[in-house]
Amino acid sequence: MANPATTYPDPVQIAVIGGTGLRELPGFTQVATLSVETPWGRPSSPIAILHHPSPSSGKPIPIAFLSRHGLHHEYAPHEVPSRANIAALRSIGVRTLIAFSAVGSLQEEIRPRDFLIPDQIIDRTKGVRPWTFFDGGMVGHVGFANPFDAAVSAIVSKCGHSLEGDGVKLHDSGTLVCMEGPQFSTRAESNLYRSWGASVINMSALPEAKLAREAEISYQMICMATDYDCWHSTSESVSVELVMSHMKANSGNARRFVGAVLDELSKDEHADVVSGGRLREQSKYATAMTGKEGRTEEAVKKLSWLFPGYYD
Ligand SMILES: CSC[C@H]1O[C@H](OP(=O)(O)O)[C@H](O)[C@@H]1O
Ligand SMILES: Nc1ncnc2[nH]cnc12
């Protein structure tokens, strides 16, 4: 499209964050490109609004697409402006977020090019990434025992299995280690994570998943293994070349998988799941602990941008 619109009139409930090797979703009609400025700065890329026909009603369903590392992969994992990304998505109405990630495998049976839907995360980031919206005069605590959304995960899982036999191999659960990077792990670290029973490793799930939870957005990551990290005795250790070669070779399957998930989420029968009702107003109560006298004007202003009406 030569000149897509710069505004979109309706709330956009579903979004995809594309990671390494998945910087766009071809095959959809792009109807708008939004540049959103948030109190936490600008997102890592403009937000593309894509139209996707609902398989149940035929109605066009809007999908937001954001590129985690920027349009040209210019943001390292620790530089990704996750607060701006999540705030911008929430501000346009997003309540369900599918995040894609290239990961290293920590288990023999999770082979390069296999997909995995994680259900747990171990945080190995180093506290250098801003990781909460609730600071500077508004304290808030949200539950994170289950970092991913079980209802969305069940839908993603069904879609992945429907593509099996067609080149897609899916693992339904697993623990994801999110490390700081940008350097890859040492062999001792890789073996330590294996001894903890972890399944896969990346540098991107956090703070993205935590911020999505604070912003009341149901979040599920789809991982695609691109290497055996550096623990495997017979495989070559992870490198950018190795990651990109598997990503490139399997990008058709990755896109088909995400497309199938969007097809399914766009069905009327999932309207409740997609609208994120389970988390609605969670953050209003999570932040109610700071008395009005203790709140700073700046924190209230920023959080009121994210949650209009919560602090009136
Ligand atoms: C290029 S290898 C390391 C890089 O790949 C993954 O990116 P993403 O999660 O955005 O697909 C990993 O998390 C690292 O950022
Ligand atoms: N081995 C690895 N470690 C961290 N992030 C990755 N992304 C892809 N492979 C990875």
UniProtKB/TrEMBL annotation:
Residues 14-262 form the Nucleoside phosphorylase domain. Pathway: Amino-acid biosynthesis; L-methionine biosynthesis via salvage pathway; S-methyl-5-thio-alpha-D-ribose 1-phosphate from S-methyl-5'-thioadenosine (phosphorylase route): step 1/1. Keywords: Cytoplasm, Glycosyltransferase, Nucleus, Purine salvage, Transferase. It comes from Glutinoglossum americanum. Homotrimer. HAMAP family: MTAP. CDD domains: MTAP_SsMTAPII_like_MTIP (cd09010). It catalyses: S-methyl-5'-thioadenosine + phosphate = 5-(methylsulfanyl)-alpha-D-ribose 1-phosphate + adenine. This is S-methyl-5'-thioadenosine phosphorylase. Its EC number is 2.4.2.28. It is found in: Cytoplasm; Nucleus. The keyword Transferase applies. Belongs to the PNP/MTAP phosphorylase family. MTAP subfamily. Its main location: cytoplasm.
